[in-house]
Amino acid sequence: MDYVIEINGLEKSYTKGSQILKGIDFKIEKGIVAGFIGMNGAGKTTTIKLMLNLIKKDAGEIKLFGKDLNENEKEIKNRIGIVFDQGYLYEDLKLSDMKKIFAGAYSNWDEDNYKKYITLFQLDEKQRIKQLSKGMKMKFSLALALSHHADLLIMDEPTSGLDPKVRNEFIDMIRTFMEEDGKTVFFSTHITTDLDKIADRIIMLNQGEVILNKEKDVLLEEHALVKGEKQMLNSSNRTQFISLSERGFSFEGLTGQKEKLKREMENALFEKPTIEDVMIAYMER
Amino acid sequence: MNIIISNVSETPIYQQLKNQIKEAILTGEIQDGELLPSIRNLANETRVSVLTTRRAYDELEEEGFIKTVHGKGTFAISNNLELLKEARLRQVEEKLLEAYQIGKAIGVTKDDMQTMMNILYDENGGS
């Protein structure tokens, strides 16, 4: 198996005594879409900044394309496309001027490719960045990120604040990007419906630790939303719930041991969860 | 090949993929030696994760229904004993289920059922 991202024992704290990342490990296979989820403040953006060497790590190892990030930074960055939520484009610049800065940074910049995206996204290069709507800004960011034949796309909250139609367009663009062999996408989000649609692997971060790292379909098959009458619960089956809420005479909970629980609670209703159900259950634990 | 994946079905997605490809091979809809879509293509087409699609292909290959030739693609294999065996096994499972249901209705226990099975094997001198 080829891994595009390998992270081992990564630690980071901004101030003494409060660790943002408490030694995280994960690997991402080549050719997949990986979703990085967690609550605000979980450490997602810090992880992404470390993966791009924008901030210094305290400990641990980051390998991209099988190579150490520190020792091969230039070569690695040439193969990465980056999209951030906000604050990395100069608002006062015209699109065409912002593009020049980007084009100069990559040795394999493809102007034709860039023009193709500008036409496709109906962007006006004479406009200033601050005049663009949020959706247009995201598309412009994507055009910049995709125009140097990147093999890995790293994005921090690319869909936050976008309306459903633009989010769907975004997902289609990712699908198109993935059609070529060997391309990989890693992106953080808290809009989990995007992940239901497109992710192959889900990594969940909570308080600086990776608490879940699974193939999406396996994750959704192992877990189940269970509903039933309160009297079905007993001290043994209660322990098999990740989260459990009891109301007047009924209960609803999420389990990670679907098959086992199914045999023990024959009359309960078992439903397939969404990623959001799973995420919330783990966060509430 | 026409594959439809249900998101609400109880059957795991990789199993649905596997079953439908198997079915297509068994019924001859996909012929011996026919090229199957690549993992990425099939994943895109069915909107299923590549990892799940890969798992389905891996298992189908293990069971001898398909074969991947590096650099050329994945091909269907029929005319193969394994397939016949599989189809027969399914028959056995169906008949056993029938026997179980009839037995259960008149109160035959698991032990009774196993005893009957043991006698069958003993009488026919097999194990």
| CATH fold naming of the largest domain in chain A | Rossmann fold
Strand order, largest beta sheet of chain A: 6-7-8-3-9-10
Radius of gyration of chain B: 19 Å
Number-wise, the strands of chain B total: 3
Kindly give the count of domains of chain B: 2
Helix/sheet category of chain A: alpha/beta
Helical segment tally of chain A? 11
Gap from first CA to last CA of chain B: 41 Å
Short description:
The complex is a heterodimer of chains A (285) and B (127). Chain A has eleven helices and 14 strands. Chain A has helices at 44-51, 73-78, 95-105, 111-120, 134-146, 164-179, 192-198, 216-222, 235-238, 258-264, 275-284; strands spanning 3-15, 18-29, 33-37, 59-64, 67-68, 80-83, 152-156, 184-188, 201-206, 209-215, 224-229, 241-246, 250-255, 269-271.
Explain how this protein is built.
Chain A: GO terms for molecular function: ATP binding; ATP hydrolysis activity. Chain A: It comes from Candidatus Galacturonatibacter soehngenii. Chain A: This is ABC transporter ATP-binding protein. Chain A: Residues 5-232 form the ABC transporter domain. Chain A: InterPro entries: AAA+_ATPase (IPR003593), ABC_transporter-like_ATP-bd (IPR003439), ABC_transporter-like_CS (IPR017871), ABC_Transporter_VariousFunc (IPR051782), P-loop_NTPase (IPR027417). The complex is a heterodimer of chains A (285) and B (127). With 285 residues, chain A is of the alpha/beta class. Chain A folds into 2 domains: 3-216, Rossmann fold; 223-284, no CATH class. Helix content of chain A is 35%, strand content 30%. Chain A is built from 11 helices and 14 strands. Chain A has helices spanning 44-51, 73-78, 95-105, 111-120, 134-146, 164-179, 192-198, 216-222, 235-238, 258-264, 275-284, and strands at residues 3-15, 18-29, 33-37, 59-64, 67-68, 80-83, 152-156, 184-188, 201-206, 209-215, 224-229, 241-246, 250-255, 269-271. In chain A, strands 6-7-8-3-9-10 form a 6-stranded mixed sheet, sandwiched between helices. Chain A has a 4-stranded antiparallel sheet with strand order 2-1-4-5, with helices on one face. In chain A, α4 (111-120) runs antiparallel to α5 (134-146). Chain A is globular and about 65 Å long. Chain A starts with a strand and ends with a helix. The mean pLDDT of chain A is 92. In chain B, α1 (13-26) packs across α3 (50-62). With 127 residues, chain B is mainly alpha-helical. Chain B has helices spanning 13-26, 39-46, 50-62, 81-105, 110-123; strands at residues 35-36, 66-69, 73-76. The radius of gyration of chain B is 19 Å and the shape is elongated. Chain B has a 3-stranded antiparallel sheet with strand order 1-3-2. Classes of the chains: A alpha/beta (285), B mainly alpha (127). The A-B interface holds A 29, 31-32, 175, 178-179, 181, 197, 199-201, 215-217, 221, 272 and B 7-8, 12-14, 40, 44, 47-52.
